[in-house]
Amino acid sequence: VQLKHIVGFSGGIDSQAVARWVLNRYPATDVILMNSDAGGNEHPITTEFVEWYSNNVHPVVTVTRIVADLGGRCRPERDRRELPDEHPMDFPLMAELKGIWPSRMKQFCTQYLKLEPQKRWIKENVTDRGESFIRYSGVRREEGKKNNSWRATAPIEGWDDMFGQPLMHPIADWTKQMCFDFVRYHGEKVNELYTLGFNRVGCAPCVNSGKEDIRNWARRFPEMI
């Protein structure tokens, strides 16, 4: 059985370091980098960086989110609006259907805008073809210690209940600076937003963004706020 190595690629430094770690160890033909268009909530610089990486380093598959990715949830509201399963789902529509905005305590945006679309793509393009896979994530313990989250004790090797497959956190014990040093050592450029002082470069801003990042977004790109 062909084994695929799948990395969620957000355009951030952690996922970029994991992508390079995986590409250093497995044939490029067996590596799949997946980017989830998180409801059109990314800054164009991040989108352009993902495109650059896809064209110059390794192809990146971009998956888009649809109403069906909510599963059976919010069915009454979906029926009321007569939304078919294939209807595109952006960030505001997701919040409207759920009846609440995502927050640090209820971060369902990651599940419905990123993970569920990836799960759907993997089923259609990997498992339905008889292939198996392992997922890799850019979770780092250092980040978890800052906000007292589960990331602080993330294992290197674990199990992904959502995907029903092994889940690897190969850079769990790395620092953020190690990630920058690692990808630059291999001649890769990084997302330009980091050079502008941003700590997080996925969603702009992310519900987990700190006040410093929020101020930076408001000062440099007020349209994102």
Structural topology:
Layout lengths: L2 E6 L4 H11 L7 E6 L7 H13 L3 E4 L11 H7 L9 H8 L9 H18 L6 E5 L4 H7 L9 E4 L4 E4 L7 H10 L6 H4 L15 H10 L5
Parallel strand pairs: 1-2, 1-4, 2-3, 4-6
Antiparallel strand pairs: 5-6
List keywords for this structure.
225 residues; alpha/beta; six-stranded mixed β-sheet; 9 helices; 6 strands; 39% helix; 13% strand; globular
Walk me through what this model shows:
- With about 220 residues, this protein is α/β, with parallel strands linked by helices.
- The chain has nine helices and six strands; from the N terminus they run βαβαβαααβαββααα.
- It has helices spanning about 15-25, 45-55, 75-80, 90-100, 110-125, 140-145, 175-185, 190-195, 210-220; strands at about 5-10, 30-35, 60-65, 130-135, 155-160, 165-170.
- Helix 1 (about 15-25) links the parallel strand 1 (about 5-10) and strand 2.
- The longest helix has 18 residues, at about 110-125.
- It is globular, with a radius of gyration of 17 Å.
- About 30% of the residues are buried.
- The model has no long low-confidence stretch (mean pLDDT about 90).
